[in-house]
Amino acid sequence: MLNTLSGRFLILTTVFVMLAEILIFVPSISRFRLDYLADRLERAQIASLALLADDMLETELEAELLENAGVFNVVLRRDEVRQLVLSSPIPSPISGTYDLRMSSPFALIGHAMKRLVTPENQIIRVIGAPVRDAGLLIEITIETKDLRDAMIDYGLRILLLSAVISIFTAVLLFAAVRRFMVKPIKGVIGYMQRYAAAPEDARGIIHPSAGVRELREAEEALMQLQTELTQALKQRERLAQLGGAVAKVSHDLRNILTSAQLFTDRIEMSEDPLVRRLAPKLVNSITRAVSLCEGTLAFGRAEEPAPTFGRVSLYGQVEDILESESLAGGTEGRIRFLNEVPVDLSLRADPEQLFRIVMNLVRNARQAIEATGQEGQITLSAREDTETWWISVADTGPGLPPKARENLFTPFQGGIRKGGTGLGLAIADELARGHGGMVVLRETGPEGTVFDICLPKGDGTL
């Protein structure tokens, strides 16, 4: 109960209303004291006027007047003459004098609080202005016991009334909060729980119905999120099914094409001029098909394993990659491969994954230059600063077309050359992000393209 939203509203409302009532209580009790003393002055004035009307009153009647007025002495100042009108013995010395004509509100509050915390019965002198201008001033002496008792009784009644008001207000607010806030919030929670249990079930999508504008906006935002997520899940499921089918087809097709590749080796040895002329084209087509199948299978794996970090000599890896690409391209010297990586540079990375990152970028560069039929150059360099290792792959190819730049790291859409799949850049970027880094296109144009591999140094080296 207490840890619920409505329960806490109940407690806070009670506390805040009580605090407000306390702020009202202080001036109220001060006002009560002022009215009490003014009433005693008025009673004393009436008693003194009775005596002035007949100065032959008996002693017993004078004492009765003083008792009814609740005072010991009454002094009137009329016509600049100070006159002791009524008097009786004072049981103790006067402890203080209070002039109600000149007291500020803060002084009255201070006097009232002081009287509440002073339990001793004292004799005080009170000065005020007579009612109906019946003199210049009136002065009385009274005990403080009755005054303090009356103030306490009044204060208790005020506090009791404040408590009743606080509880009543809190209960009303509690009911209102449960009706207009807690119930709609619980409805939203129920929709979220049902949706989490079966996100593919469209019946779990919330239908906005809250009357409070903020809650309705939250419900509409949740509905949009659930709708988009449901559609994304359905699309993902379809893509997963399609990916599984493509992987199976690619696997079988790769085996078939590998067998066909073996047959083309024999066809190349044929003496028929037409066969010898068409055989290289057939071989290239089959090779590209095998490459597509292998790339699709590689990208279609469920996930890349987490990198296993170790110290890697970058220069040696680059040498292996450039030698492999030089042999694979069969470019016969038309493409130059330059390794400008510092010999002593080593970095912290997964050796196998780093090899694949660099190899994919170099292979893309080689294939881009080969597509032009012109000579070209691929240069690999590296540098480091206090926080990052930078590996650059620069080529003198034709540059990236606009479509390739728009979908640079999107599988099957960011292909650079005709017939390419765009998997190389997607795989390289995914592996780099697994290291906490990225692959960045620094520049591209007719003069060539430069890719940077950024790998953070992290929290130290091995």
TrEMBL record:
<dbReference type="Pfam" id="PF02518">
    <property type="entry name" value="HATPase_c"/>
</dbReference>
<feature type="transmembrane region" description="Helical">
    <location>
        <begin position="6"/>
        <end position="26"/>
    </location>
</feature>
<dbReference type="InterPro" id="IPR005467">
    <property type="entry name" value="His_kinase_dom"/>
</dbReference>
<keyword id="KW-0597">Phosphoprotein</keyword>
<dbReference type="InterPro" id="IPR003594">
    <property type="entry name" value="HATPase_dom"/>
</dbReference>
<keyword id="KW-0175">Coiled coil</keyword>
<keyword id="KW-1003">Cell membrane</keyword>
<keyword id="KW-0812">Transmembrane</keyword>
<feature type="domain" description="Histidine kinase">
    <location>
        <begin position="248"/>
        <end position="459"/>
    </location>
</feature>
<dbReference type="InterPro" id="IPR050980">
    <property type="entry name" value="2C_sensor_his_kinase"/>
</dbReference>
<dbReference type="GO" id="GO:0000155">
    <property type="term" value="F:phosphorelay sensor kinase activity"/>
</dbReference>
<keyword id="KW-0067">ATP-binding</keyword>
<keyword id="KW-1133">Transmembrane helix</keyword>
<keyword id="KW-0418">Kinase</keyword>
<feature type="coiled-coil region">
    <location>
        <begin position="215"/>
        <end position="242"/>
    </location>
</feature>
<feature type="transmembrane region" description="Helical">
    <location>
        <begin position="154"/>
        <end position="177"/>
    </location>
</feature>
<dbReference type="GO" id="GO:0005524">
    <property type="term" value="F:ATP binding"/>
</dbReference>
<keyword id="KW-0472">Membrane</keyword>
<dbReference type="InterPro" id="IPR036890">
    <property type="entry name" value="HATPase_C_sf"/>
</dbReference>
<dbReference type="InterPro" id="IPR004358">
    <property type="entry name" value="Sig_transdc_His_kin-like_C"/>
</dbReference>
<dbReference type="InterPro" id="IPR003661">
    <property type="entry name" value="HisK_dim/P_dom"/>
</dbReference>
<keyword id="KW-0547">Nucleotide-binding</keyword>
<protein>
    <recommendedName>
        <fullName>histidine kinase</fullName>
        <ecNumber>2.7.13.3</ecNumber>
    </recommendedName>
</protein>
<dbReference type="InterPro" id="IPR036097">
    <property type="entry name" value="HisK_dim/P_sf"/>
</dbReference>
<dbReference type="Pfam" id="PF00512">
    <property type="entry name" value="HisKA"/>
</dbReference>
<dbReference type="GO" id="GO:0005886">
    <property type="term" value="C:plasma membrane"/>
</dbReference>
<keyword id="KW-0808">Transferase</keyword>
